[in-house]
Fold this protein.
Amino acid sequence: MEFAILAETFSKMESTRKRLELTQFLVELFKKTPNETISKIVYLLQGKLRPDFEGIELGVAEKLAIKSISKSSGIPIKKIEEEYRKGGDLGHAATKILEQKTQTTFLVEDITVERVYETLFKIAKLEGNRSQDMKMKYISSLLNDANPLEASFILKILLGTLRLGVAENTVMDALSICFTSEKENRKILELAYNVSSDLGKVAEVVSSEGLDGIKKFKAILFNPIRPMLAERVKSENEAIEKMGNEFAAEYKLDGERVQIHVEGEKVVLFSRSLENISSFYPDIIEKIPETISAENIILEGEAVAINENTGEFLPFQELMHRRRKYKIEKAVSQYPITINLFDILFCNNESCLDLSYSERRKKMEDIVKENNFVKHIPMTIIKKESDIVEFFENSINAGSEGLMLKMPDKPYQAGSRGSFWLKLKREYQNELGDSLDLVVIGGYFGKGRRTGNYGTLLLASYDEDEDTFTSICKVGTGFSDESLDQLYQILYPKVTIKKNPRIDSEMEAEVWFEPELVIEVVASEITLSPIHKAARDHIRKGAGLALRFPKFTGKIRLEKTPEDASTNEEVVTLYQSQKKIAHDKSLM
Ligand code: AMP
């Protein structure tokens, strides 16, 4: 398939952020795509080569890209850098530069999607001393044969700056329109994605085998399953109302969720956002196999930092010391953990997703032996209100965040936030009764002690319908010097010249970031706002919602993807519940 078709579609997609239009462009594109190429296109349009869990990264630096443009065009590096500085986007700079060059060179080989993909794949796989030269050779051979528009998108993919604003949901909408006739079929596609976490594979199967192929998707070992999530409730009463007479409650520990795949001695660990995190937890890899009496298994648990002397649970931040490339052995002994299991998703070559919670819990207890390091998360069956009050207190006293409540007769719903699981968190000192996880979209440079760091951040909630990140507040309090440094290190590489099209903000920022990092804040109140965009028009026409007196809690939620951030629906619920409390108080 000609790469020009893809480049033209990308170019059209860059000019809109409307989900319906994006979907339509994708439908037209998929219709023109051969079955054997569609998975490649699905990865490429998300700026990837393979699903995240395979950890294949392109990692080409700007300098190398500039050298390659120079090599293929004969134009001096200085001139390319000048053009780049003018616009701030190397893809666009390359278009301009190469427009000057195309009259003088000859096309050597056709640029196809397959060729671009394979060359990028080779580049990603290169390692070692001579890899830079080889990478440059591959890049300039592509650029040599590409027209300016094609070259600009090849560079954007290479540099990781392709931002088309399409999320998985939009891709699934388009696949469903294109390859399945009924609207309900969208759900079946989603199920396949939820158990495989591989949208490229879903696209390939639906385009070649249709729904029959999609229905055959099953959980498989060493391929992460998208995690089941919980809805939040504010009180024990609300929990009982939603859960019914009898349900399970577990401690909600404050650590990192880990999906553990084991077969014999082979162990692979995936994070909540489906990245391979095996290297951070060599202790889990070493100690889990001996506790399991099954041929193979997929378990879920919470890795929690502990005080080895007292056995107490420590806060989530302690685990961040484990996120390092080198000297991990030292971090393992300095920051010990336990792994607290709460689910079993697969066992002895069979999926356990359709078993009920009670059946899964029993199976997990039967098959996995507890020891000092591997635990079953504390659980009890709640039959009356006093049970939940008591268990909640015990859990807080043990250093946990609250409770997870689970319906005993329900299956594991991969990838969805349904009402089969609820979370009841400890009240923070904030009057809202809950913290919010928000996406960092912009920054403002600090003054005084904060010079050289971002002193204030612009935050956004997630609009699920539009698939955008809507501004909700600026936050400048709650930061320690250490956290400001850490945030700077994380955010600096995410700076962009142009605001990402998925950001919806009227408020200007001094720097814009790719909407990727999630942090936790508390606030005193949610108010209507003429400038912020969260849940705009929802409560009152022309007004959005904003947080009043927001404060950073110190938690950088590296394990969350931006789509895991608090949604506008949740913000509206919080807004309405505070109104209700105020109303009730006024009646007292
Ligand atoms: P939240 O991050 O507030 O949406 O809460 C969901 C997270 O709580 C999960 O992703 C897990 O990391 C964590 N968690 C802690 N304890 C449990 C438990 N017993 N069951 C399920 N998730 C748990």
The first strand starts at residue 229 and ends at 233.
